[in-house]
Amino acid sequence: MPGEGFKALADPTRRRILELLREGNCTAGELAEHFDISKPSLSHHLATLKNAGLVTDERHGQNIVYSLNTTVMQDLIGWFMGFTNTECDKDE
Amino acid sequence: MPGEGFKALADPTRRRILELLREGNCTAGELAEHFDISKPSLSHHLATLKNAGLVTDERHGQNIVYSLNTTVMQDLIGWFMGFTNTECDKDE
DNA sequence: TAGATAATTAGACAAACATCTAAATATCGA
DNA sequence: TCGATATTTAGATGTTTGTCTAATTATCTA
């Protein structure tokens, strides 16, 4: 089920967006200042992240504020954790 | 720098390969038995994983044995860990 | 209500991707 | 060395992806 999440993480721009959101919530415009791509392109990336459940959005007047959804992030981390203790069945 | 790794993780077949490899090393042929795609397609996925550093390969006679490279896996986990303790600067 | 600002949706396009079949390479066993 | 087996490489093809510009929607303010 976390397939959309992994796909969303495949793009460097989207990973950077998540890193920026980790510091605090941002409007679409504030996020746009950090990238050299057009606003529609950034909006498309945000829609991808939202579709994957990695971010949520909420309108505040003219702005739309984006926030990290750490719950879905935890799910992805959970997948990775299955790979951390594999020292019991290596045969080479 | 872990960009190739994230891209490699975006495909469900490749994630499944990693999960199989977590149980133990496998030859390309053994891995192929678990999928409905052609062997050349699987070989391509293995090459992608190898290029990302997520697996290593070693020829044993006619077979090529694939193994997880947990080091690179750890690097990816490291990126995720930066998102686990974000409870100090949320403003909503 | 009209104009300005913030952001998204629509539509187009080139590059990247996953897949296939056919051909090539490498190794083993008789 | 010859044939069989294991796997990859080459080349082609349809789909998905990231990007753009132009147009649209939503909100605020005067």
SSE inventory with pairings:
2 copies of one chain form a homodimer.
Chain A: H1 3-9, H2 12-23, E1 26-27, H3 28-32, H4 39-51, E2 55-60, E3 63-68, H5 70-81
Antiparallel strand pairs in A: 1-3, 2-3
The first copy, chain A, binds a DNA duplex (30 and 30 nucleotides) through residues 10-11, 13, 27-29, 32, 37-48, 59, 61-64.
N- to C-terminal distance of chain A: 32 Å
| Biggest beta sheet attributes of chain A | 3 strands, antiparallel
Count of discrete alpha- or pi-helical segments spanning 4 or more residues of chain A: 5
Helix content of chain A: 40-55%
Residue runs with pLDDT of under 50 for 5 or more positions of chain A? 88-92
Provide the spatial order of strands within the biggest beta sheet of chain A. 1-3-2
The dominant shape of chain A is globular
Query: What is the average per-residue confidence, as pLDDT of chain A, rounded to a whole number?
Result: 91
Oligomeric form: homodimer
The SS-based structural class of chain A is alpha+beta
Largest interface comes to:
A-B, 33 and 33 residues
What is the H-and-E element order of chain A? HHEHHEEH
Q: Total strand count of chain A, please?
A: 3
Q: Report the β-strand fraction of chain A as a percent range.
A: 15-25%
The gyration radius over C-alpha positions of chain A equals 16 Å
Primary descriptors:
three-stranded antiparallel beta sheet; alpha+beta; homodimer; 92 residues; 3 strands; globular; 5 helices; DNA-binding
